[in-house]
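Technical appendix A lists one of the benchmark inputs used to test multi-chain prediction within the project. The record comprises two sequence entries:
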Amino acid sequence: MIFWKFFFNNLVSQHSFNKHSESKDQLLIRNIPYKNTVINIHFNTDKQINLSELEKLCDTVGWVRRPLPKVYIAIKYSIVVISLFYKINLTKNLIGFARATSDYAFNATIWDVVVHPDFQGYGLGSALMHQLVRILRNQDINTITLFADPHVISFYHNLGFISNPDGVKGMFWYPR
Amino acid sequence: MIFWKFFFNNLVSQHSFNKHSESKDQLLIRNIPYKNTVINIHFNTDKQINLSELEKLCDTVGWVRRPLPKVYIAIKYSIVVISLFYKINLTKNLIGFARATSDYAFNATIWDVVVHPDFQGYGLGSALMHQLVRILRNQDINTITLFADPHVISFYHNLGFISNPDGVKGMFWYPR
């Protein structure tokens, strides 16, 4: 029993909500046209996100504003957050975001996928999702789920997501 | 900036994966007939679950067995786990289980809802779900989601869950 406890605790200690092994900036897509020039898009999985900048990004796609302290908690307790940005000099400009919750063992659920409208149509959404799925797979998560609005169902379908497989339905409970 | 960091960190410290404020045994339903007598069903939200007992419970409903170390991690990183049991003398006999993952802020997703077949038909599944929703609502989670197999969609519907609201669809990605 003591051995198992030690074994389990060792396993669990490999999973931390405060660190992530892959937080350095990585090149995602080169030469996206922007304002009479071309830029490179990078991504990282750093949880130290400027929440005002994230809020502005979400504004561009018309999302309802959410209390920043709750956004901070949601990021903290997501298994992965992924940010897309371009750099001008040393400044990073956030243009994409997604995150996933998980039990760190079997399932993950993806939330808050957003790409700035100025940068849509260049495959950034697909590239973002490929990275997110890859990172979750690297953490041995087998079942990756999400809830898709009608206008993005075909987008996720093209990435290999299946809607209502074997009649399984996504269901929601909201406060009345 | 320092104030906000202090404020955020204080908020986050209220959420811990190792403690839960509501882990004592509570009476759920009285006088369920069982083996020529009647028993009372209790629940708690203790994460210290006997994993072999949980595995046996899942066997009774025909679920595929899963590696116990991964089950341990999944329980550890669930925002809530809830167990149903009856007591004989001081021994607790596990007869129901459910858990939820969450970002501790906006969303929770319910997984692994199970009631032992010998105890189905007495409203225990509904009572279990009511407690789970109540606990998540007490933690200020507004959107509670799940993925329902076809034969339990009406069960969840009767509990107030809506399938595919506004055309939103649950989607799955599995390794190929």
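Chain B has five helices and eight strands. The beta strands of chain B are 26-34, 37-44, 80-88, 91-102, 107-115, 143-148, 162-163, 169-173. Comparable benchmark entries are summarised in Table A2.
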